[in-house]
Design brief:
alpha+beta, six-stranded antiparallel beta sheet, 6 helices
């Protein structure tokens, strides 16, 4: 009888220990800072960092309008630390250069769709040429990025660069807030970065509407790279 009681106690303790460990793992997986050790120090984050932009992620009903409107915005020119880490993990997996301090003119669109392959299209202007680099990953934007699945590298005319640059300027891009207020769960992040000799700015949007001017430019870059995206996968 005594042995039976001891076995029962050990089984109960083992189950309690398992549940405790399981809860800890779940808690850790919800922490947006969990990827920091994979990225190294903060200089490896792709977007400007500021302490005031750190935002505690909320877990509420995604249909709650107040929640959607208060989705982590950061302050102008910055994103929250959690979002910065998420973007950076995806972009580092694509082996993209950090362009926030670039001295060369660069236009880059990064597309993080929750359930589809992450994509980046970058135009870099040199003295007399423009190089396009397109990258598509094997994973998903809302999960693990996977491995580099396809790469497109080709030259683009300087007149095409000028045309896209003019389109960007017509949207008042440099005056727009970096994190647009529209937000939600799942969906896709559309991130446009523009760097020059003396300035850098980015605008990130969640599922922009079809008539959004910046969205049209971003899809133009996708087409320029030669990536075919079925209409049902554009969101």
């Amino acid at each position: 009888m005594e042995n039976h009681r001891r076995k029962t106690v050990w089984v109960v303790l083992a189950i309690a220990g398992f549940i405790s460990c399981k809860r800890e793992v779940v808690k850790q997986s919800q922490n947006p800072k969990k990827y920091e050790n994979k990225l190294g120090d903060s200089t490896e984050l792709y977007f400007p960092v500021v302490a005031l932009a750190d935002t505690i992620e909320k877990t509420q009903n995604p249909n709650d309008t107040a929640f959607i409107n208060s989705f982590p915005q950061g302050i102008d020119g910055y994103v929250s630390h959690g979002i910065n880490v998420w973007y950076s993990k995806q972009m580092k997996a694509m082996k993209l250069p950090i362009i926030k301090s670039s001295r060369s003119p660069v236009i880059r669109f990064t597309w993080l769709r929750t359930f589809h392959h992450p994509i980046s299209v970058e135009l870099k202007k040199n003295a007399s040429t423009v190089e396009l680099t397109g990258i598509q990953m094997s994973g998903a934007g809302g999960y693990e990025p996977g491995e580099v699945d396809s790469v497109v590298i080709k030259s683009v005319s300087t007149s095409k660069w000028d045309s896209i640059e003019q389109e960007i300027n017509r949207t008042s891009f440099w005056q727009l807030a970096s994190k647009r207020k529209r937000g939600g769960t799942d969906g896709a992040e559309w991130i446009l970065e523009v760097a020059g000799k003396t300035k850098y700015h980015f605008v990130t949007q969640w599922c922009p509407t079809k008539n959004d001017a910046i969205r049209k430019i971003e899809l133009e870059l996708i087409e320029l790279a030669g990536f075919y995206i079925p209409p049902r996968d554009i969101y």
